[in-house]
Write a structure and sequence with these properties.
2 copies of one chain form a homodimer. Chain A is α/β, with parallel strands linked by helices. The first copy, chain A, has 37 helices and 32 strands.
Amino acid sequence: MTKHVYTFGAGSAEGKADMKNLLGGKGANLAEMNLIGVPVPAGFTITTEVCTAYNKLGQDAVIEMLKAEVEKAVTDTEVAMNAKFGTKGEAFPLMLSVRSGARVSMPGMMNTVLNLGMNDDAVKILAEKSGNEQFAYDSYRRFIQMYGNVVMGVEAEEGEYDPFEEVMDRIKEENGYKIDAEITAENLKAIVEEFKAIVKDKAGREFPTNPWDQLWGSVCAVFDSWNTPRAILYRQKEQISEEWGTAVNVQAMVYGNMGDNSGTGVCFSRDAATGEDQFNGEYLINAQGEDVVAGVRTPQEITLIGSRRWAERNGTSEDNRKAKFPSLEEAMPKVYKELDEIQQKLEDHYKDMQDMEFTIQDGKLWMLQTRNGKRTGAAMVKMAVDMLDEGMIDEKTALMRQEPNKLDELLHPVFDLAAIAKATVLSKGLPASPGAATGVCAFTAARAVELAEAGNKVILVRRETSPEDLAGMYAAEGILTERGGMTSHAAVVARGMGKCCVSSAAGITVSMTSLKIAGKEYGEGDFISLNGTTGEVYEGKVDTITATLDGDFGKVMQWAENNTRMYVRTNADSPADAETAREFGAKGIGLCRTEHMFFEGDRIWKMREMILAEDTAGRKEALKKLLPIQREDFYGILKAMDGFGVTIRLLDPPLHEFTPNDLDSQKEMAEKLGVPLAEVTEKVEALHEFNPMLGHRGCRLGNTYPEITETQARAIIEATCDLKKEGFDPKPEIMVPLIGTVQEFKLQEEIIRSVAADVMAEKGIEVDYMVGTMIEIPRAALTANEVAKHAEFFSFGTNDLTQMTFGYSRDDAAKFLPIYIEKGILKQDPFLALDQVGVGELVKFAVDRGRSSRPDIKLGICGEHGGEPSSVEFCHRTGLDYVSCSPFRVPIARVAAAQANIR
Amino acid sequence: MTKHVYTFGAGSAEGKADMKNLLGGKGANLAEMNLIGVPVPAGFTITTEVCTAYNKLGQDAVIEMLKAEVEKAVTDTEVAMNAKFGTKGEAFPLMLSVRSGARVSMPGMMNTVLNLGMNDDAVKILAEKSGNEQFAYDSYRRFIQMYGNVVMGVEAEEGEYDPFEEVMDRIKEENGYKIDAEITAENLKAIVEEFKAIVKDKAGREFPTNPWDQLWGSVCAVFDSWNTPRAILYRQKEQISEEWGTAVNVQAMVYGNMGDNSGTGVCFSRDAATGEDQFNGEYLINAQGEDVVAGVRTPQEITLIGSRRWAERNGTSEDNRKAKFPSLEEAMPKVYKELDEIQQKLEDHYKDMQDMEFTIQDGKLWMLQTRNGKRTGAAMVKMAVDMLDEGMIDEKTALMRQEPNKLDELLHPVFDLAAIAKATVLSKGLPASPGAATGVCAFTAARAVELAEAGNKVILVRRETSPEDLAGMYAAEGILTERGGMTSHAAVVARGMGKCCVSSAAGITVSMTSLKIAGKEYGEGDFISLNGTTGEVYEGKVDTITATLDGDFGKVMQWAENNTRMYVRTNADSPADAETAREFGAKGIGLCRTEHMFFEGDRIWKMREMILAEDTAGRKEALKKLLPIQREDFYGILKAMDGFGVTIRLLDPPLHEFTPNDLDSQKEMAEKLGVPLAEVTEKVEALHEFNPMLGHRGCRLGNTYPEITETQARAIIEATCDLKKEGFDPKPEIMVPLIGTVQEFKLQEEIIRSVAADVMAEKGIEVDYMVGTMIEIPRAALTANEVAKHAEFFSFGTNDLTQMTFGYSRDDAAKFLPIYIEKGILKQDPFLALDQVGVGELVKFAVDRGRSSRPDIKLGICGEHGGEPSSVEFCHRTGLDYVSCSPFRVPIARVAAAQANIR
């Protein structure tokens, strides 16, 4: 006969940790804790298989099936807890909790019933045994409310308040109480009667007083909750199978509010903030778990050392501390000793920092829960390094413990905790680039530069940024924009610079002179602060703490190095960025955008001269002036990445990005270039596009104006020849952007190879270089077998590939993407995490087809996804050679790549 | 031993028609004509295999290989023609032509040498035998010029004139001649000497006087021309294999300019303009083929009946006609009789109308060429019907003879031939919608309506059109725009209306009051004329002839009906369009765009009210006013297509398409809707998008504003219920546009089905309807298996699918598409003919995946490609159920679909 019920308690259990599929996560863990000798309130788990049977056979059949096993399990629980279920003579009443517990956690999705077993008899015994009538009746009224709601379906009708809460409010009003704790035992007795009447009225039947009826009702309610619409929706979103079902955990209740010999608390086996190997936590005497959370009373430290540190921080004298806020170590030394041994045992057992909940009932310690504790990025690194040193875990485990995104916390400034606690949040936007920044507002790039030069820390505040704002962005500590998504210009560039950025901040209005936000107006020179990791915008100046990397971080990077197959490159447009990334372990540049170079200083004027040229000859003339500048840029970058490949993308953006939009700037342009204004305005108008994203850009420029490609190819190969002559080892990989047909690539490749041959002949030296292409147009992916016959490498430009595959403009999608995510149409923003189902399908397709034509083709990704862990894992699985991301994402990508390899 | 040379002449031949791969098209045809007893100048064909050998082995080896066979073939030719190659005694000199001839025609791509065999001796004999010294020396100088250029590589150097033409010009100038014919024999003798000197100077060797050297030089030149860059490019574009090679045809020259017993002409076995079964053609006595083309002399009619008709048209008296312009039938009755018999024999043999060239040399008729003749659309239809009636061909052959696009000529007005011959072309644009139109210029939609109401024929001239111009487009005869491609608003709407449209006309500038073109300015009321089939714009009024369909057209449609698997639907937004299309044989509507309905009359104001609404309640209020209007529209369209499926697409365009852009119209909007102007301008600004094509539109509207979908679904189902109650058989297919994820579809489907259930309950009647989706986003195609689990039909929106797959904005692509086509990067505009390699791959993918989830899923296409023959064939092969196109393309699509099925 199949076993449906697994008991646990008093140091033994029928289940164990590896039975999660059958017992659910919680059930397996409760069994495991018993097995290793941790005191856990006894109880039993009804298996997930029963849930499946319940959905097929229905309630009655399942109760029949379970009856004997459950009755036996309740008896075992009674024995273990020395209590009696239902009122049996004078024994202490056994109260039960009934909770769901699926294979994976589905927080808040399913039903829970507490204090089960309560009735008019039991409440009296509990009041007597606990010596606390108010506690007993409050437990009773809570039980009716919860059971009435969860099992009997009593809830607020449309347009009305919750009927139970209405009674509570009325009683408080009538008696002038402010908080629930003031409600007396007498009040509660009356409330219990009213609650029973409400249940009868709304549910049409009496509230069940028989504990067994209560138990079966609760068990079935948990099974029913597996199929509520919100649970189904949650499973769809999280891809949890319908078939898995939930287990039901029935467990004895214990109470920390049964007098001064009782208490409750939470504790951690190591310091979750710093990672220090120091047991710590908080507790309250004579309290329930929710009291610790509610914050009405100040919780006390568990350890003496923690308590003393707390007193020091709060300026409390040792005497006062000892009298009013003694540590558990002092107040209940025996219990403390047991707890300390248990925490060590649990950490040793689970081989990770534990976050535990406990209750002391009448001097007896019960552990309610243990789980791996959450931690800061710094703690995550330190704990893993320490545990590896201690021999608790091996290198692979230590590496797998790193949440890649959390490494960000180590790389960027963060707010001072004390300062941020007092700060006022003005708005919340998108966390476009991580870190914290504080400074004075500047509303133009030029003013940002001036204010910074005058010694101010500056926040650049713009409606949106464009390449013309680059100097201002460099000068600023952080960037705030009214518009734009996670892949807007501001966001992408800020991430590249490692600067904090908040974009699309809610309800803000930015002009050229002020920022209106939350009903206030801030002008130039007013302080604001940004948290680019959360998207929060704060009023005034909030102190920040600069990031510092210690040796532990280096160890983590070494683990990644030891365990990876795929390597990591960086997206960098300047020698400085290249150097930063190289320090973080980047092995080459996956994307060097040549257009960014054109905005610096006077260069834009030469570019504009080229754009205004009327014919090929005119363009060639202007390009001649750009050639030495480009050569110098490439020289610097190739030198900074000496020995590693540098993928240089030929000119990509539409030409109108280089021309000014406002009349004043157009006048300036006309004056500077010595042409009539009309010529400038006509050119600007001629360059206008309805959908620039799908317009005249990428290799469409190189194929209509081959002289641009010629000039860029010449600059690259000249720089390469010069470096090789000087003894360096430059490895340029010339990338043709935005191809959709193999012909587009072939024509560009011909130009590049022909120019390269010329340059090498002129310079009298042979150099190696590759010519490849970006795969960012769906058609290029679909015809990758043809493209790969000519291209030596593919770099997946997943930003644009996502735009075209979804048909989303990343500049406009903010209008519907948040609603799509809210409605569950999308699980996440596809510009943040690569859409593996759709866009990923095209990537896989292109990888397969590309390799079919050229087995040794070099494959990488250079979209923003290259620094996002789930996308990095996808790239590993798909067999790419490398990912490329902004310099500050390199460590994250390295860890993600190594983890993918271990998985 | 492999045979390399195939002779023909004097009624026998070694090759035949089905040896095209070996002998090339021309060679096989020359052989075939001999075999059926047509007099063809004798000669021989060197096979295509020799070309391949030539490329591998080189010149010397191939000449060695061919030598014996060619010498024998020349001897055979001498015998057949009673002439001698080289000067052998007093015999008539045999002159030869050497021409290329590949498997498929590559017009103008490869080299030709005429009058080969000429030298100082031969020219004298020819002068004597022909009695025409001028002719003989002119032939000689032509030969030196052609051979010098083609074989010896003498050509103009950069920046200089052609050296031969320079001599000719100098001689004419010195002697005051105006045309070449005035140059005397004496002049020509001197010219020949000068030409020889030029060759020696430029080529560095003497002009070869030995006819055999000339022959081998010419044969090798033809083989060499297979690999010229332009021939290679042409083959790439036309997908002709490099391996096929070209044959070389060496054939005796015959001369029509050897006196009054000689002549030359072209003739047709039926009337190429009308299709009438009447032999016809033109000839000239004592002339070469090029004289007929040059137009210096007036060619005469071949038949007496033709000659009399000509005289009547030109007001020439019978006496004058007979004296000066006698028909060949009168002038050379014996030759005429032979020619008439031959034309009949050739038509019977090739079973199609023949276009023939002939030469009469000294009373002897020689046929130089025969091929299937080009014809007008009307003639194409009539000939096929007649030949089927005559039993010459069967129904399938008759159907395959229809060039689908040519049927257009029967459906639209065309210019009067006499009128157009005299008209001045002002510009050429894209042939955006076929037909001819003449009328006065109107520069706004409103003026177009007024002028039309006043009885004028109007041409609407706009920079570009928008939905606000619809009324003006309806009122106009034709539309001319400065901007926009083949799928611009103007083009798409005009094709739907069956109106002529020319878009992106070169070098024109349109304002609100005038049209500047070719240096002239035209104001309101000035006449212009448009040919939407060619893209030409004419000055002034050019008379048109209205299209009329006769019974023959109906027969062609019936053949299509008998032979098709795939059926044809129409894209129609109004009952009138639906009726037109139904007359053309459309079986349902594949795309009914609901947004077009919102621009008519006062409706736009209700739409704008909806857009301005601040919340869901406000939008619902405004939508309530649109509901009855929409219901009425759907009622009309479903009724017009009673019994056939009608695919209704839910609202698709971004909302900003419904709001005005200029300040005046925004003021009007504010006034009309009673809101402050600021509210309107703010809304317009908020709706602005950087890339509207990839923005907030399609089901993204329905999913963010579900009330829009609710209203449209209600209108459709209410109309359906009403019609069913009246005894009609409405079949709505509700189409959700622009989905990229199955969730987007599911949420819309839920709304539609829920509303439908409500309406059916209210109306007390059950109706059938389908819910499906448009596949126009690459991601939808990639995940079609998921989508098909919920969608009952797919309609491929290949316009947008092409935009996203290529990353081309059809509004902007005009900036580079023409250059791409010119450079051979693209073979054709992918918005005109479906890109089968890339976009087609996605379509096939979606068809396979869709059917895997839902085997009976209904599949169609509703992009502009649905009316383009090669795309229709693709759809047939891919297994779609139907194609849908604008009403006037329905006949074309039906023929193309049937032809695809036969193929």
